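Notebook B, p. 112. Complex prediction, attempt 2.
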Amino acid sequence: MNENADICNHCRNMIREKEKGMKMSRRISTGPSSFIPENEILGAMPLSDSTVMFLDEEFSGRVDNLTQVMGLHPHYLQAFLRCHYYLLRMDGPLPLHYRHYIAIMAAARHQCSSLVCHHMQEFEQIGVCSDWLRGLEFCPQRLRNLNEINKILAHRPWLITKQHIQALVKTGEHSWSLAELVHAVVLLAHFHALASFVFGSGVNPDPEVTEVNGVTDDLCPLAMAGLCTCHLTNGNQANGNPLRNPDTGSELEALMERMKRLLEEREDDDASEEEMFTRFEKEKKESLLVVSAGFDEEVVPPSPVARFVDDPSFGYQDFARHGEDNPPTFKAQDYSWEDHGFSLVNRLYSDIGHLLDDKFRTACDLTYYNMASHEGVDTSMLRRALFNYVHCMYGIRYDDYDYGEVNQLLERSLKVYIKTVTCYPERTTRRMYESYWHQFRHSEKVHVNLLLMEARMQAELLYALRAITHYMT
Amino acid sequence: MEKMNRVNTISGRTMFCHLDAPANAISVCRDATQVVVAGRNIFKIYGLEEDGFVERLNLRVGRKPSLNFSCADVMWHQMEENLLATAATNGAVVTWNLARPCRNKQEQLFTEHKRTVNKVCFHPTEVNMLLSGSQDGFMKCFDLRKKESVSTFSGQSESVRDVQFSMKDYFTFAASFENGNVQLWDIRRPDRYERMFTAHTGPVFCCDWHPEDRGWLATGGRDKMVKVWDMSTNRVKEIYCVQTIASVARVKWRPERRFHLATCSMMVDHNIYVWDVRRPFIPFATFEEHKDVTTGIVWRHQHDPYFLLSGSKDSTLYQHMFKDASRPVDRANPEGLCFGLFGDLAFAAKESLMAGPPSVGDVGRKTYPGGDRRYPIFFFKKPDVTEQFAQVSSALSVFESEAGSSVGMDWFINTAQSYLLSGKPFAELCEHNAQVAKRLNRLQESTTWTMLRIMFSEPANPSLSTNHNLNKSGNLPLVNSFSMKEMSAALNERNKENRQDNIHSLETNLNNNDENEETEGSEGQAEYLFGDAELDDDDLYSMEHDNQAAEEPEYLLPQEAFPLRHEIMDHPSAPEPVQEKPESPHVSGSEAESMCLTPMESISLISVSQLLFSPHLPPKFFCPIVKEMLCYYAEQGDVQMAVSVLIVLGDRIRKEIDELTQEHWYMSYIDLLQRFELWNVSNEVIKLSTCGAIMCLNQTSTTLHINCSNCKRPMSNKGWICDRCHQCASVCAVCHHVVKGLFVWCQGCSHGGHLEHVMEWLKQSKHCPAGCGHLCEYT
């Protein structure tokens, strides 16, 4: 699957030992992910030496389900872990318990109980202010003030304005410094996106999380009983292997064919500006129609999570709604991550810019030149389509991208999946995961998920940082 | 001659005009009379008149302007005055011919780039050659006589941020990339670059060839640096480096000034700086007119250093006159003043100011004129005639504090090390700390500790007996300790005898107090307790209420105590005149006592009067005073006292002071302790603190990296056996067991072991216990 990195025998042994350890403690779940067969993940963990060391140091050797699923892409995993641990453990403007509490608040917006429980546990371990865990009303006003931008960033980031920033930063008893705020914003975006990944890849909650700590036990009764939301989607697991579906054999070829044609057409594609603009608008509008089933019923958040959610009715609404005054499109060229976002974030929270930069780049550039069974394929077009489609749903437009490509490359079932995973990840089901790209490997679908996660995080960050920039000027 | 004439025709003043939209780039035509402004929603040509900008032409035409008009960059041809090129955000490269008769001046459209084009550049001398650099990682060279590019240069899928033709070498151009590299290309060889070097960490946003010096290239990057490279030699050499405060978006050499260049930034900072690269610390000149980031700068004429044009996101176009620039050097403070950790004071100022004879007050001052051997802080530069900087030399004076003077910080260290913060009963801690303070000649602090002990100690517990003992030994560091001794001793005895007496004593004491108040007026705290004028009713009642709730279960005499107090509180003034007579001897007594107090010790009177109530006044009663006191100390800068008291009092006071203030005090104290390298004390303080944010400090940076002592590879932190060489790491050289816990080792031979074992070993032998023959040293 992935090219086997050269690792010494010793490491391999260690990983094997680690895996044994995992199997021992795995009781509730049936593997790291409920979407992906266990052997698929365990069979492919050629982590690089340094990643293994990093894991050892930062996690004391524990590899949770999330890491295992992400471990399908070791190169990315390394960049991810670095950033993750810098955010949570290393020097930064916010005290440690704040960071975990913000993580809880962010994950709770998407009712991601496994992340919430994990960070509740981490919070407990710090050993201060444990009564905050009883709910939002027990934490300081300062943290509660974050609720507003938390919910906006999670569901409709384009609504964030400099007034929101002003309200948080203005001098007063509960004010935030800009550095703290940037740290908080990065944490929020990171965990919103991570929740997308958790649901999108069906990562099972970690058994240890519910076992280790007595206090968390009674706080996470649902996860304890294996009833985590992503578990609910586990129903049709017995359907056998849906991967080798003979009916869809031509699907892959068709996709490759379209990619090839697009490459050739590009030279003589003389679409006018209006045409390009309409294509973007069309894609934006069409994303409205892409709605997953069971939209109407409001998912009631499981009880341990609900206490960290303020205004639970605030949810995703489409960026472009018919017959309403839409917010102006965000022009990517006017505020880009590389030029503007990076400088701002790095100025206020040193070094995080480099780590995020590295993470974004790794995610976007990651490729094995494979597509399902075909080798030596340039997948950059597909990757860019995925990335830009997410940004398109968030109203971010690239002048230099022809949104017609999205339409050609991304089939409808994939669009449904993308929209669900990025906008309301808690509704992702196993069926959605299986309904697209039947011939592709699981690792490739995880790759898709990584792209969605990073694109989403970048979109949130761009909106938030732009608001902060506006506030500063 | 021709050149001179042209320069002379330029005149003007600092001026600006509003654009309709933010600008992305600007460019001037060759004769410096017109400027083109390009942006997402603007593409206009302005004429530069004597007293203002005049709009000449709007190139954005059409009913619904296409994205080809959305410009990332623009360049006016330096040879052909009718020719312009723009780089569009959608990847198009467009050329414009102003000589076209119709409204639409667009001449040619190249749509070969797949991503945004970041930069276009005309060849300085060749009329028909245009170069573009794009986000898609390609640079393309166009011949304007042909419909498509003549050659393509690949940057290996790294985005190109800037391309610049060399001013001196006909065939060379430089390209800067998003990954920090700069490449040099020969226009005739599209297959590979001539040279490549890494110039910055992170994207290189801009580069500019020196107009005069062949091979000098200035680059600016996201890492906030401007670097000047010399390419004339075999090895590319960084010759100058200027650190700015924000990522560098544009850099332009100043005409006719060999070492000057102008920069503007991409984010946060809105100013334009002109640097002398030899003086990289302070900008030579600054233009501060813009309200949002500056996106384009250009010198108006290529041989005139006095006019700079700039466009900005704030939708203005400026012409800056060099004479109107602000000179940061003039505002820079040539004096420097710094306190050393141990109270030394260093002061540097212009030599001329320091030349006068030392005045009488200069005791303990040591002057080191520039060049002193002991403080070799200066280096003298040979004045360079081309430099326009004023030569400033300054002299440094160091004022050393005398030992034991108030400026010195010895007391701080001593106090920090000697104070006890935990581990003993409250009263003993206070007593200990009081003595420490006294020993260090800090009487007020000492008194404070004593007061605290008295206020918060419970009467019927051993703390009072300690008190008693101490009294006997005469150790109490209070000036008027006699009064306290007597009172507390008496009280103590009575306490033991029976309650009735106690009440009685209380009664009398209360009266005493009232009288004190009467006779002394503002003196003493009694006022605060009973004065009707000072406390408003709300406070009184709430206090009563608290007391009731708190005391009833705990104290022996609630019933008796309360009516008494109620009476006093409700009618504080009524009984006084009556009582004055029968009690008159007492009055005189207490008066006498208070008379002998020096004003400074007057606080102790408070403690006296309060002590008398201690069996009945809950410690809570004192909280407002103590709080005030803590704030006072903190305000005075003695955060040490505030924190120490806070820790020793613990729960008694903690709830009274809001978390943030406490956190602030803790942080300041810990910071101070760490500066003095009092790690143990600072850790103790962190451990004893009750603030969440402080306790967290101990959990940061707790990773310890261990390498195996055998194979020198990093150890995983699982167990004591190295995974790689399968040997026990960190074995004690004395007992050959694995050391779990404190491991001490010699830095010379890296052998070591259990702390006790090694200490024992070293008593007997000087050599290493491992037998390596090293004469071990442990410090």
